[in-house]
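Study both lines:
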Amino acid sequence: MKSLAIVMRQNGGPEVLKLEEIEVAAPGEGEVQIRHVAMGVNYIDTYIRSGLYPVPGGFPYIAGKEGAGTVIAVGRGVSEFREGDRVAYPSGDGGYCEVRNIPARALVKVPDTIALDVAGSMMLKGMTAEYLLRRTFKVGPETVLLFHAAAGGVGLIAGQWAKALGATVIGTAGSEEKIALAKAHGYDHVINYRSDDFVARVKEITGGKGVDVVYDSVGKDTFPHSLDCLKPRGMWVSFGQSSGPLPPFNLALLMQKGSLFATRPTLFSYIATRAELDESANSLFKVVQSGEVVINVNQRYRLADAAQAHADLENRKTSGTTILIP
């Protein structure tokens, strides 16, 4: 079967993302073949494209890790999925394409009440918010947290989810439009990091106490200032680096700033087993179905325009979630 796909043959800027026609074989043992309805665009895709993260399996590489669609064929040994099932995945290299094969162990079924374009936009980001708020640091009514990039894909989901858990939610954003968007999605306070000293504002908001946890996907531009926002024995969760990688630092810095905890988690460690994958996905589906979390698909691009989607994401021109449409 023929399929259009976005293929990378080298690292570089968005221009290395090329639309090509590929041949898709019949699904192998343990595999499912799906026809995409939507594929999510995520910062990790740009990290792999640029060379910041290694290219899984080498070149040529089909970009993209997240998508949703319909099963059109199953391979030998697959009993949990059948033709016509609505499915999605948060982690599967090769996502920017019309048709693909993927291991059945990577897929989950999507409830009928959730549109497939929404599912394709939310799996990686929503399940990231799930593990950050429920497992990396267990957020509850007593929690005061700071979430950088509050109007981003993970940020808008996390703000709503954290508010549903009863937390006091502080965020940062880079424009008045994004500040308003974040405030409409669970954030009690949103700081303009372009015009305000976010450390000083966090201290002001918390009466000098600081926050229990900082969720930081920005990286270079927010370090080490994020540490200065924390209470003694608070936790710094560095889960991305949209502004560039963190510099090496002496671990004694955590002691000096209040016996802080620090972690560099990734979703893939939190969904390593079938049980963990299902639990995380079902938690996400539940909060979306309940209306506690609304998924904003704010940008839609044709598959052929994947390079523009990457450029807009890296230039902070996007908010909420971004998808490619085959």
